[in-house]
Amino acid sequence: MVERRTRRRDGRRPHDLRPVRLIPGFMPPAEGSVLIEFGDTRVVCTATVQESVPPFLRGSGKGWVTAEYAMLPRSSPERIERERRGPGGRTHEIQRLVGRSLRAVVDLAALGERSIVLDCDVIQADGGTRTASITGGYVALVLALDRLRRDGAFAKLPLTDSVGAVSVGVVGGRLLLDLCYEEDSRASVDMNVVQTGGGRYVEVQGTAEGKTFTARELDRMLAVAANGIRSLAKMQRETLRAAGIETKRR
Fold this sequence. Notes:
Helix 3 (129-150) packs parallel to helix 5 (215-242). The chain has a single domain (20-242), classed as 2-Layer Sandwich (Ribosomal Protein S5, domain 2). The radius of gyration is 18 Å and the shape is globular. The mean pLDDT is 94. The relative contact order is 0.18. The two termini are 32 Å apart. The protein has 5 helices and 9 strands. The chain is α+β, with helices and mostly antiparallel strands.
């Protein structure tokens, strides 16, 4: 990897995030919702509270957090067929990733026997839809948990930390943070990193395409991703604070 300081096509420096915006309360009927924008990628995340759990958790006293993911037909330059027969392989993989990431920071015993379903609907895709779904999904989740808290379900939010995600990769020999679609399509290394606010990893998905990478290069990619996630965690806290919810910095 060569660290060059030249700007990217959109004017960003190599280790810059795209402009990120979080708009809470975007879907008023939902217990928690947010529109998250990473540049031209836009995802609507809604959290729904259900007073039931999957069969394998009934009687356990524990709750559950799960996710569904979908891309609207014209979220991309060419129309995407609706998945009428159920989620395909890519969709299923992303749903499981989002659910795992959010469960990693929820105290399921304190949640009680109820479920929270996160729906992540991509309305415009320009790379990083799964990382945006995780980052925005966390904010929607906290908004829903805070509504339960205010309704007396528990005295404090059943959270152990925050969680966020970002992509990192190597494009043209340069280490770049938060890849847009054009960069992602040319990347020799593409990686998605999910990390808690306290710096603990939930998941790392990394793939080389045509050119392998070393342990030292992996360490550098993880360090750049961690810096990006720290910035995202700050944005999450500020968004929730503006909504009247204080979350602890880990």
